[in-house]
Amino acid sequence: MGKVVLVTGVARQLGGRFVRRIQRDPQVDRVIAVDAVPPEHHLGGADFIQADIRQSGIARVLAETGADTVVHLDVTAMALGSGSRTTVKETNVIGTMQLLGACQKSPTVKRLVVKSSTNVYGSAPRDPAVFTETTPPKSLPSGGFAKDTVEVEGYVRGFARRRPDVAVCVLRFANILGPSADTPLASYFSLPVLPTVLGYDPRLQFVHEDDVIEVLRIASHEPERGTLNSGTFNIAGDGVLLLSQCSRRLGRPTVPLLLPAVTWAGSLVRTLGVTDFSPEQIRLLTHGRVVATDQMRETLGFQPKYTTAETFADFARGRGPGLVPPEAIAGTVDRIAALPVLGGGHPTTQSAN
What we know:
The protein is α/β, with parallel strands linked by helices and 353 residues long.
């Protein structure tokens, strides 16, 4: 008998792509796709079950399907359709609690994969240059998706203690980008003009949506020789980009604002429904965040196909040209950065560290 894989969050593009991909693995016999709403995209030969993971009925779904592998992708920052932030938080936190409760009772579940985020580290002015999986955050996130992920991981650790026979893999993804990415940062980079924080040029990391699908697939299977796909892993492409480099490559001008003004601008764009410009995103765009990926390579055995720069380039191609040709922005920014008074542009970089 092959594996029976249950996947949550399949109404989103990422969940749908993973469901279609995991079906092609020869070790997989059946895929159960679960979400509270029917997906608008096709799921191949997967069995779709409409179920809300916030409700106790998810335990019945798990029992009836006999799934041995659960891939929990319904942990997200963006509402689906006309959903609200409250609905997102309930799905992230209460939904995870209900799903873990169902897994705890299930005698068939042997592997659990959870989609998390490097948001758990927060973004603070005195953060280390690079976070490892064991680095504690300088300040715990106070709200939003970052706080959700901290709570989700806490519940997952509790589950792992209660069910030591289940292999648990938590994947902390850096900012996910790609041609079809639906994330807060993708929405931010799609604005015609990018509000930034005056005096800061944060370092950012990205992971390509194709690499997300592949590492989820690897984590869903028994480990290959010399690897161990249980534990917590940072997932990101090689290298970093400064926010100024991102704006230049998009051809979108920036508007540097004092921090209070950025907060106001965030409220404005949320009101307009343009993007989820939350306080946690403002902190990221102020202080940045970089994580180490040694464990991803050495222990999980995963090598991303795309670097951070290549991920952003693929995303930029899918978004079309900005208001200003990238060459014009690049030339102007380079000339300003070369002025002696700015010391070659280093102060803004240092302030982001």
